[in-house]
Amino acid sequence: MLEEGTYFMKGNHVIAEAAIIAGCRFFGAYPITPASPIAERMSYRLFEEGGEFIQMEDEIASMAAIIGASCAGAKSMTATSGPGVSLMLENIGLAYMMEAPVVIVDVMRGGPSTGMPTLTSQGDINQVRWGSHGDYDVIAYCPSTVQECFDLTIKAFNAAEKYRVPVFIMADQILGLMTSNVKVPRLRDIKIVDRETPMDGDDTYQPYDSSTLVPPMAIAGHGHHVLMTGLTHDERGYPATNPEGQEKLMSRLKRKIYENIDDIVELEEFMLEDAELAIVAYGSEARSVREAIKQAREKGLKVGMLRFKTIWPFPERQVNELSRRVKKIMVAEVNLGQLVHPVREYAVCEVVALTHSGGALHPPAEVLRRIEEEMK
Amino acid sequence: MKPPITVERHPRDKLLRVDRLPHIWCPGCGLGKVISAYSKAIDNSGIERNKHVVVSGIGCSGRASGYLDLDSYHTTHGRPIAFATGLKLANPELQVTVISGDGDLSTIGGNHLIHAARRNINLNVILVNNFIYGMTGGQASATTPYGAKTSTTTKGNYDHPFNLPFLMRAAGATHIARWTVLHHVQLQESIEKAFQHDGFSFVEALSPCPKGFGKKNSFRNAIDTMHYFEQRSELEENPELTQLEIDMDPKSDVIVGEFFAEEKMPYFDSKDRFFHYIGGHQA
Ligand code: SF4
Questions:
Q1: Rounded to whole angstroms, how far apart are CA atoms A173 and A258?
Q2: Is A9 within the bounds of a domain?
Q3: CATH number for the domain harbouring residue B224
Q4: Separation between Cα atoms, residue B18 and residue B6, nearest integer Å
Q5: Which among A47, A68, A223 is the nearest to B84, CB-wise?
Q6: In terms of residue numbers, what domain contains A361?
Q7: Contacts of residue B278 in chain A, CB cutoff 8 Å?
Q8: Which end of chain A lies in a sparser environment, N or C, as judged by fewer CB atoms within 10 Å?
């Protein structure tokens, strides 16, 4: 494992190393630009750490394999880009239903379809949240710097283990391939969370006990004889495909995220104290926005940023509160308007969009021009 | 007064989730025989029961995992082999068996079937072949015989079916067997052999689906397919694999047997060789 120190590394490689420190011992993936460096790194690094790497036959298989490995007790991850997420969506629903902790790295690239494999985008924000059928929730972290590739990967594993949900790390082509300094703290100072498991031989164990939001998870081979299924199920894991069974299960699954939303959500406020215009931004795009805000401040414009380090679950309360203290919110993103919609839903002030059809970030000068226009 | 109905505990009950019975399968369905053969094989395997894990996909055969009192995983359509690959890699001590149907494993999930065989990973695949999608109402699958009538080939199937043992041999499976559910003991023994075999095992279990397949074709009653299996099954130890297609024609033979077994470096050993080469393996 990486020892304490400062390293000069690519974002994708930092995610791989952080995953190993977080306890990842199974990685299954299929090659795809621009996420492949994560698989390449894991292909030999996991060997060294006593884990298992496998290059699967496609992304559907990758997602199925990491859920299987998770059920056998391994902290598991895959890494892909938009087209791969599209193939994984059905099994992401399975992970949600089985409550198998898994981490999915999405190094976003231009879409739709093959789009622009080698250029950046933030076009998967909605896909990860809404792509699988039915009602479900995910946790999605969105790093903005190479350092956050490290910090948020650790948190992603911790959240997956704590809440037993699929967790995304939403990087993008620029961040994945960017090389920068990253500080790795002393290993004993890094907080690592492991899932709760039932005691071996506990006859009263109910795999989907509804008296608690996150029941302990039995590991294959320990004698609990669990039935885990994608079908709507009762506390024993047995199929309960009726409106009552559905209501009982779905309400617990929903509550386990929304009753813990304050524990999950992470936001950064930048120069918001006296701001009249707040820019909501995330990921690589937030770097341009930060620069533009500094320049705008020099011109005396009262503008700040609310940066989402977690995109999902959506920080409903915080956006609503923000909208009561500013005159206007502008959502800056590298897509044609995705996160702007929930912002509009929860804000009481005017919300405008700064969109980009993809392939590059907004240059700071362009963000600045829009700031000036909106504050006229 | 009517005499009370006494339900004896069946010797297989201890491997079943009896609180989930009766099962959902139709009268005359062959799936119960597959479960029975698998659970007898577990009893005889000498492998600790808690190490046996069963994984299945979607469909009538996919429900098999849910009736077995083991760690059991009922996954998505076509993906149980990929799921099982993750389970096995994360804990090689588990004895991982996939039980699912022809639609699940060889049609929607065909890619995972061939790639798991290619890797020669130590999984046991029991493919219950009833030539049809049973649960969704008898539509054609990749094993529906040429000319057979199904609810999506009402005039006869114009697609050619897979010859699964041949496909598996070409893909790299190192243990290949086929029985009908009538050959209960042989099926059970092939499953036991799969447990012992170090590598990818493929056991095809031909099974009647009177509702979805039989009554539209030449097997009007549930028992007719069983009679056919009884009368036309031919045991062959070393068959020409290219000749193993099944047409379910009452005048054709059904070739069954332990078709193929070889020792080839299994997945984990193969990987270890290169671990050492890289120099990273910490045994
Ligand atoms: S539809 Fe066919 S396969 Fe399904 S339970 Fe009925 S007989 Fe068995």
A1: 31
A2: yes
A3: 3.40.50.970
A4: 15
A5: A68
A6: 268-374
A7: 44, 47
A8: C
